[in-house]
Design brief:
The chain has 14 helices and ten strands. By secondary structure, it is an alpha/beta fold. An eight-stranded parallel barrel has the order 1-2-3-6-7-8-9-10, surrounded by seven helices. Strands 4-5 form a two-stranded antiparallel ribbon. The radius of gyration is 20 Å and the shape is globular.
């Protein structure tokens, strides 16, 4: 699936991902006025999503669907989440379920079955959600990653591990120094220490936590590299931190980046450029509000929400290809 995603990026000359992080208040008033229950809100959100998918599926390689925007409507929201993924998949889009799951190994295996693998019921297996990729929190370490990696390999899927996130306070944890790892007296040093300090480690020795996580992600994916040189184990790297992205790009030559932060969060094409390699590959860039709320802006005034989303998608692509050349 990692090769399929990159090939779609190349065919469309577009690394954009539409984020269907659809809040009820994003919908036009006429869609909201008769939705007086959790079920009604979820159904309106689904209708909104389906119309955007119909208008944009030929323009982008993938959509990202953030589950939190659906969970707050209970089972009805989760139904809308599932149907949104299924509809996108039916249109040939690569689907990314933004769920940021993880836990201890046994629980992580359950999360993995839900979004990447299959759930066994009696003697039959079922796919609970139609997602090709998911987002994962890697800060539980390797035992939490193992189930996702096993299912990703078995079913030809992938996942993006949080490395340097786009939120303003990410540095409170992710930028903390880790120099003490080199001075560990332990007879069984952590995998992080092994990755960072072993001979032949990636080109930049980690100095802070996000770099250590980046090198772990590169290590976790080393046996899963596709024909374009990228692994099925990707990383979430925020466009709002371009200097950090540049450091990670050099240290993670085989890791595809999922890049949030473009558009409504303040990053533009200049900020995302460090995420790409010399071929114009290596990253897919998400925009959520900038696409699905485009109809509310002066630039797309008078257009219906789905047409405005399509126009904003084209404009995003044009903005990105000003700074990268996709070969």
């Amino acid at each position: 699936m990692i090769d399929a995603l990159i090939e779609k990026v190349r065919q469309l000359k577009n690394p954009s991902v539409i984020g269907l992080d659809t809040a009820f208040e994003y919908l036009p008033e006429n869609m909201r006025k008769n939705a007086n229950s959790l079920k009604g809100a979820a159904e309106a959100i689904l209708e909104f999503n389906l119309n955007i998918i119909e208008k944009t599926y030929k323009l982008v390689p993938a959509v990202k669907v953030q589950v939190a925007y659906y969970e707050m409507y209970g089972v009805h929201g989760l139904r809308a989440f599932e149907e949104t993924l299924r509809a996108a998949k039916a249109k040939g889009l690569v689907t990314i379920a933004d769920v940021k799951r993880n836990d201890i190994g046994a629980t992580a295996a359950c999360y993995s079955k839900a979004y990447l693998g299959r759930t066994l019921v009696g003697d039959r297996e079922f796919a609970a959600f139609e997602s090709d990729f998911i987002t994962v929190n890697g800060y539980l370490g390797g035992d939490g990653i193992k189930p996702f990696l096993e299912d990703a390999k078995k079913y030809d899927k992938g996942f993006f591990v949080l490395a340097k996130t786009s939120n303003p306070s990410s540095g409170e944890i992710q930028d903390l120094p880790i120099a003490h790892l080199s001075e560990s007296k332990s007879d069984t040093p952590s995998l992080a220490a092994k990755v960072i300090y072993q001979k032949g480690a990636p080109s930049l020795a980690a100095k802070v936590i996000y770099q250590a996580m980046g090198q772990l992600i590169e290590k976790w994916g080393e046996d899963n590299i596709g024909s374009f040189g990228y692994s099925r184990v990707g990383a979430v790297v925020g466009a709002t931190h371009p200097k950090e992205a540049e450091i990670l790009r050099e240290a993670m030559p085989h890791t595809l980046f999922l890049v949030p932060g473009y558009g409504a969060q303040g990053a533009g094409s200049a900020e995302i450029k460090p995420c790409f390699d010399g071929r114009g590959l290596g990253a897919v860039v998400n925009s959520s509000r900038g696409i699905i709320c485009a109809y509310k802006t002066d630039r797309y005034k008078g257009m219906d929400y789905a047409s405005a989303a399509a126009a904003a998608t084209v404009d995003m692509r044009e903005d990105i290809v000003k700074v990268i050349d996709i070969l």
